[in-house]
Design goal:
By secondary structure, the chain is mainly beta. The protein is built from four helices and 36 strands. The protein folds into two domains: 153 residues, Sandwich (Jelly Rolls), CATH 2.60.120; 242 residues, Tachylectin-2, Chain A. The strands form eight sheets. Strands 1, 3, 4, 5, 31, 32, 34, 35 and 36 form a nine-stranded antiparallel β-sheet that branches. Strands 6, 27, 28, 29 and 30 form a five-stranded antiparallel β-sheet that branches. A hairpin with a 5-residue loop joins strand 9 and strand 10. The chain starts with a strand and ends with a strand.
């Protein structure tokens, strides 16, 4: 674990409390959970830092050894672009596999969409679907065969209110052209429109300089050749589609320079049929050819705070061959957005290649789309290892719920953080927090309009321990309903502690 940013601001708490809030729009928290990705929630921080945490590697969950996954006839497996869906009592996985010694993306005989199921998110099985014939029989888990769909078929469960039963499951798929699909059960799929929703002819690609393959204008656009993703963004009331595009590199002034970059574009829709607003995602920094490109994003609404989009992008360093025929190498990063438009890429990797030399490859540690909660305090994540090798497999990693980044305090005296003015609607303050044996956390509430402490809420009972849902008490009392709706500030005092998230819950 390392610090991804250190914020030490000169500030005197006693003076600040005496100053009423100026004309600053308060943050409307409602009862939503806020994760400690950065200093968004705070006006000042002293003696604390934001520390990123890496997942813990667990067991191998799926060995890609089936004949249609390439290993038996060719000695190595090629799989990728996994999608994991969570349903009551069941987890479902879709993934791409390639059969052939040399991949030919246009050859429908070489590409498949595989399907697996699990009851616990740990042990996975290949059900016999009886849909696609391979080597003389249909006793396999192949859902689709064919390059235009199977290359990157990516389903999701549509949570939009009022969605028709026969479109409960939706998906995007297609290499070079993106099509949309619907299904009542996640197995039987149909196109929702015959024409692609994106095919490279849109004027936006000229506007943003999207590259043609080989930089030849006679060739199709270099787009959609990765794990492209769509989902219902409930916080903003829209469907959103994130897809790969090769774009010109930019200098710090935003001018085009020599070189191209693997990047990501997006567009939105109200009905999943008609899409508009194609544009590159905003990472807040220029696209620089010598830096990492975005091979995938794995962007998704965070289940415990769906207004936040989180992603685990495969970050590719294209000009750094390591061994064998691998052209470039990759590792998995962390990215997030609070508004669905502007994204932050964390300064350090979430899952580096590590000591296993077989992960120092072009597609090393590629994360699946979909976070699954496999325990009350645990999220599971899945990723491919040993790309293009005889030992290729899918592995599981776990991380504490909300545990990607924490507001961290060292030993006593630790530090303090003051929030921006905010309004909440819940009745209790819940913290996901852990301390050392000698650590502690206290919370105070201040009226942001008058700058005065709120009587009885100056400093909470000190907490020490490790809980993902600790309810804060003041002199043994936890009810904050009389303060709900007022513009307040939080004062957090921490030492030898990590705060992962907070929420004013009903």
């Amino acid at each position: 674990m390392k610090r991804i940013s250190s914020v030490v601001l000169a500030w005197v708490f006693g003076v600040m409390l005496l100053q009423p809030a100026r004309a600053v729009e308060p943050i409307n928290l409602g009862d939503q959970r806020e994760l400690m990705f950065d200093g968004h929630l705070f006006s000042s921080v002293r003696g604390l830092s934001f520390r990123q945490h890496r997942p813990v590697e667990r067991e191998k969950t799926l060995d890609f050894s089936a004949p249609w996954e390439g290993r038996r006839p060719f000695g190595f497996s090629v799989t990728g672009y996994a999608t994991v869906l969570t349903e009551p009592g069941r987890f479902r996985m879709y993934y791409a596999s390639w059969y052939g010694h040399r991949l030919k993306p246009g050859d429908p005989e070489q590409q498949f969409t595989g399907y697996c199921e699990s009851r616990d998110g740990i042990h996975w099985e290949r059900p016999k679907l009886g849909r696609v014939q391979f080597d003389g029989n249909k006793q396999n888990n192949i859902l689709f065969q064919g390059g235009s769909i199977s290359h990157n078929f990516a389903p999701f469960i549509d949570t939009r209110p009022g969605v028709p039963d026969d479109e409960k499951y939706k998906a995007v798929g297609g290499n070079g052209k993106a099509y949309v699909f619907g299904s009542p059960d996640g197995i039987e799929w149909r196109k929702l429109r015959e024409t692609p929703i994106v095919d490279g002819t849109e004027k936006a690609f000229d506007r943003y300089g999207a590259i043609h393959w080989g930089n030849n204008p006679a060739n199709p656009r270099a787009i959609l050749d990765s794990h492209n993703l769509a989902f219902w963004d409930s916080a903003r009331g829209r469907y959103v589609f994130f897809f790969r595009a090769h774009l010109p590199a930019l200098d710090r002034a935003g001018r085009e320079v020599k070189g191209t970059v693997r990047s990501v574009m997006m567009c939105t829709s109200k009905d999943f049929r008609e899409w508009s607003g194609i544009r590159p995602i905003d990472l807040g920094v220029p696209r620089q050819a010598w830096r990492t490109g975005l091979y995938t994003t794995s962007l998704q609404p965070y289940p415990r705070a769906p207004h936040m989009l989180v992603g685990f992008p495969l970050l590719t360093i294209p000009r750094r061959p390591f061994k064998g025929d691998s052209f470039g190498m990759s590792e998995t990063g962390l990215m997030y957005s609070r508004d669905g438009e502007r994204f932050t890429l964390a300064d350090e990797s979430l899952m580096p290649p590590g000591r296993d030399m077989r992960n120092w490859t072009k597609h090393g540690n590629m994360f699946a789309w979909g976070l699954t909660q496999t325990a009350d305090d645990e999220l599971s994540m899945y990723y491919h290892q040993h790309d293009h090798q005889s030992t290729m497999h899918l592995k599981r990693a776990t991380i504490r719920v909300d545990g990607f980044v924490s507001l961290h305090a060292g030993r006593y005296p630790g530090g303090e953080a003051i929030s921006r003015p905010l309004v909440f609607s819940g009745n209790e303050l819940e913290l996901n927090v852990a301390t050392g044996a000698g650590g502690g956390v206290r919370v105070g509430l201040v009226d942001a309009v008058t700058g005065q402490v709120i009587p009885g809420l100056e400093a909470s009972d000190e907490f020490y321990g490790d809980q993902v849902a600790h309810v804060v008490h003041w002199d043994g009392k936890k009810d904050l309903s009389k303060v709900a709706g007022r513009v307040v500030r939080l004062k957090l005092t921490l030492y030898d502690a990590d705060l992962y998230s907070l929420r004013f819950r009903p």
